[in-house]
Design a protein that fits this description.
The protein is mainly alpha-helical. The chain has five helices and no strands. The structure holds fe (ii) ion (FE2) (2 copies).
Amino acid sequence: MALKKWSSRYSVGVRILDEQHKIFVGIFNELHAAMMKGQAQGIATSLFRKLKEQVIEHHSTEEKLMEAAGYPKLTQHREHHRTLIETFESFSARHENGDHKVYVPLLYAFRDWHDCHLLQHDREYIPHLAEKEFHREAQHGSRELT
Ligand SMILES: [Fe+2]
Ligand SMILES: [Fe+2]
């Protein structure tokens, strides 16, 4: 599986969300690089901890912004987030139980997150958040959402 490189075409137009998405790509690449060197087991505990923290922070930020923008598919998007958390938590539990075959499927789960969630579901809120940003700019003369 190829490394993921951040590209401006992945941008959702809100800086904090782009920064958080980049962190996920970084975690993916960290796991990928460790696996290539046969060192996944050594970084797995810290990687799962980092992943959990980032997932909680990112979903919270993204959902607050979608809520503020009145995003019509918020409930559905929350459901996608919940499923993602369950998927990653199940991998974390397998790791804690000593299952060292968990890294390859975790990498595939990352790829699915990247290709399905980041490049499809997250992109759907772009016009709604952009519209909200426009209204704030109009009201306050500055960009507050970025
Ligand atoms: Fe999302
Ligand atoms: Fe996201």
